[in-house]
Design a protein that fits this description.
The protein has 14 helices and 15 strands. The chain is of the alpha/beta class and 373 residues long. It has two domains: 182 residues, Glycogen Phosphorylase B (Rossmann fold), CATH 3.40.50; 175 residues, 3-Layer(aba) Sandwich (Rossmann fold), CATH 3.40.50. It has a seven-stranded parallel sheet. Strands 12-11-10-13-14-15 form a six-stranded parallel sheet, sandwiched between helices. It has a two-stranded antiparallel sheet with strand order 1-2. Helix 3 crosses helix 4. The protein starts with 7 loop residues before the first strand and ends with a helix.
Amino acid sequence: MSADVAASVGGKPVRRLVIACGGTGGHLFPGIAVAQEAGRRGWETMLLISEKQIDALAVQGHQELRFEKVPAVAMPGVFSLKFPGFLWRVWRTRAHCRGLLKSFGADAVLGMGGFTSLPPVWAGKGLGLRTFVHESNAVPGKANRLTARFCTGVLLGLEACAKFFPAGKTQVTGTPLRTALLTRPDRAEALRFFGLSEGKKTVLVMGGSQGARGVNRAMVEALPMLAAQGVQVLHITGPKEYDGLKAAYDASPVEAAVVPFCQEMGLAYAAADVAVSRSGASSLTELSAFGLPVILVPYPTAADDHQRRNADVFTAAKAAVAVEEAELGGGKLGDLLTALLADEAERQRLGEAMKTLAPADAAARVCDAVAGV
């Protein structure tokens, strides 16, 4: 839908969209992608983020977008002594969001998932706005199940998730990708950016925006085997794990670029032959868009075991290799990596299968849904 065509929400043109997307990169980056598409349509956007460090890092380089911080709200167990305090924080944050929505003149509210989405969507419902939540995973979390009760529609990254919501309320859009990830950079340029060598096989390691301790430790165990094969590594450690991992790589003969966080993920994907990743929905979408063969290591304590369910979707489509974190010890990750790096035909097959699982126009589909198209 072009920018000069008036999108309408209940007969009212959509001009101002609020996107609640803080808390993790898996919520924030797709939210930024929707804001970029909305901007192309001539809409104004306001993105609600949390006060976490990862949000501050992720919004760097997006000065064209308006961000507002709202208090993070994490749900404890229902029988926890902290639960009454949680209800009070949700109510207080809802009141704060209501004020933001009214002052912005919002026409619609979109939550990208997690409890950061609940208060603004609830506030939008109370103001009579059309409201939406996007669920990227194969199984929804508690936050999105609750938020969906206040929504006009539920937008899904994967068809497998539809069965968890009322029939007729869902629409499969895919998970939106930022503009910067829609074009594949030159591999040589990407390697130069990270200071890595051309002519070497490259492994990209990423544990999501928070890092992944179990994956990081398994990579340290794999370094001797990778060194013997002349493999180089681009490792995104997460801020908390950076110092220890950097020291481990400095002590090994493996050529590596070790960074706590990466703003230029398009270059990271373009530099790699194989990835090792958690199976968060946003990371899976980006890996799919680049057709990058991947060894998935689901986060073992993810809420509702959603990362394992995501991995199941990709392994069922024969698009990825999955291994449990508990099975990575003793050099198992090194074995998997060296075997995959040695089999070019298998890497190509996996890459082609990956590409089928991520619609490139997901951000446009989300905006169409919000507009009622």
